[in-house]
Design goal:
Blueprint (H helix, E strand, L loop, with lengths): L2 H29 L5 E4 L4 E5 L9 E5 L2 E2 L4 E5 L7 E9 L4 E10 L5 E4 L4 E5 L9 E5 L3 E2 L5 E3 L9 E10 L5 E11 L19 E2 L17 H6 L2 E2 L7 E8 L7 H10 L5 E4 L1 H6 L1 H9 L3 E4 L16 H19 L6 E2 L5 E2 L1 H9 L3 E3 L14 H10 L6 E4 L4 H16 L3 E3 L9
Helix pairs in contact: 3-9, 8-9
Length: about 425
């Protein structure tokens, strides 16, 4: 037999042997003698959270070095939206062999409670407390707000102090959440009564005036620093490279106060805003934003009256209410005590009025630089020019947000003064180390 014929015969024999082996493997396979090993990927028992996406780890089928996993079919009654016991059955398609995984769908997440009105509230002594309420939501049960239990037994509105109110809710799976709210019972500022004994103090009304700084030297005013200090009053800060920006706002129809605040915040500069009661009351969101950025909200009275006209025995209660009502409104809006910082409306003061505000615990702040910024046609260039012309160490600037020029000048002014080495503070830091 030729060599070529032998090769053909050998090839035919090899093919026949391969076919016989394959048939034998198949015969063994279907006869049950050759069965791939069927195993679960992951745990046989799994616990999953209701409402989540379940990722099935599946199963594997292997024999020696061959993977038959693609021939596995899975069947399941799993419902991830309902609590319960479920199973997934994995079956090898060419042979009646299967394994099962058990799935427990559970709810282990406690409900969430959200307090309305914040987690710390201040009320005034003997004032009725109206609970702002709370809402509750659960990942499985949904809205549980009507099932919140409130425990306010510790609250005593007749005693000053800090108290806790507890809000508790359970879901149907027994998960519990408790949240507490702190309520501080404070002195009502409007309960303050002044014992009037001030007739010995001069009540001659004066409107604040000052001499504009020349060549950036510290300046003088209608009252000297020694006189003012006796009554905790100031018109300049210490002789150092610090400037104090102050803004008086009573609720003008046209105002750029929010734009100015934005410039201050962008430059990381804090300022003092002397505001009337009604402005504080009518702009709570903005007031809280000012406070959050570190600005000081100062007392500028309720009705913007000339305070010396009220500095007498007959009108003392009105004088006091002009200040305390503003203080109370600030506490209601921010939940914080108001700093004892005051500025007389229009700068109208008297020695007696100074003494009365001092006896109320307040410090007064006048100014060492201002200009006629009531006019609506003052340009940004004009405003910037006067701000730069009269700066001096410790200068307190009086500005009105109703003037667009002040807004336009604020950013370049701040940048220019920082380049000269000046910093900015709020007036409550005067005097130094206060």
């Amino acid at each position: 037999m030729s060599k070529k014929c032998k090769c053909i015969v050998y090839s035919i024999v090899a093919a026949m042997i391969a076919l016989l082996c394959a048939g034998l493997i198949k015969l063994l396979f279907f006869s049950g003698l050759f069965v791939p090993l069927l195993t679960l990927n992951g745990d046989a028992q799994m616990q999953v959270e209701v409402g989540t996406n379940f990722q099935d780890p599946g199963a594997s089928a292997r024999y020696r070095f061959t993977d038959y996993s693609d021939q596995i079919v899975s069947e399941s009654n799993l419902d991830m939206t309902q609590l319960g016991e479920y199973q997934i059955r994995y079956t090898f398609t060419d042979y009646d062999k299967s394994i099962t995984r058990k799935i427990s769908v559970v709810d282990s997440v406690a409900p969430s409670i959200r307090l309305q009105g914040g987690d710390c509230l201040r009320i005034f002594l003997n004032e009725e407390f109206v609970d702002p309420g709370a809402s509750a939501n659960d990942n499985y049960d949904g809205d549980l707000s009507d099932q919140i239990r409130v425990d306010d037994r510790a609250l005593d509105i007749s005693q000053l102090g800090r108290y806790e109110i507890l809000y508790t809710v359970n879901d149907t799976s027994g998960n519990t959440t408790t949240l507490k709210r702190t309520v501080e019972v404070c002195e009502d500022p409007t309960a303050f009564r002044m014992y009037y004994s001030h007739d010995n103090y001069d009540n001659t009304a004066e409107e604040w005036w000052f001499n504009k700084s020349k060549d950036h030297a510290r300046t003088t005013a209608c009252r000297d620093e020694t006189f003012l200090a006796k009554y905790d009053a100031y018109f300049m800060g210490p002789d150092e490279q610090v400037l104090y920006l102050t803004f008086d706002e009573g609720g003008n129809d046209i105002t750029y106060i929010k734009e100015i605040a934005g410039v201050l915040n962008d430059n990381e500069v804090t300022a003092t805003f002397f505001l009337t009661r009604n402005y504080i009351r009518d702009n709570p969101e903005f007031i809280n934003d000012l406070v959050a950025h570190g600005h000081v909200i100062a007392n500028h009275s309720w009705h913007h009256y000339d305070m010396p006209t009220l500095a007498n025995a007959q009108d003392i209660d009105t004088f006091v209410r002009e200040i305390t009502e503003t203080e109370k409104t600030y506490m209601q809006v921010t939940g914080q005590p108001m700093k004892k910082v005051f500025r007389f409306p229009k700068g109208g003061m008297s020695e007696r009025a100074l003494k009365i505000t001092q006896d109320m615990g307040y410090t007064n702040y006048f100014w060492s630089h201002a200009y006629y910024d009531y006019a609506q046609d003052v340009s940004g260039e004009e405003a910037l020019a006067t701000l730069l012309k009269h700066y001096h160490n410790g200068a307190i600037y009086l500005l009105h947000p109703s003037n667009k020029g002040n807004y336009l000048a604020m950013d370049p002014f701040i940048k220019a003064m920082k380049e000269k080495g000046y910093t900015f503070r709020t007036v409550d830091t005067i005097p130094a180390n206060k």
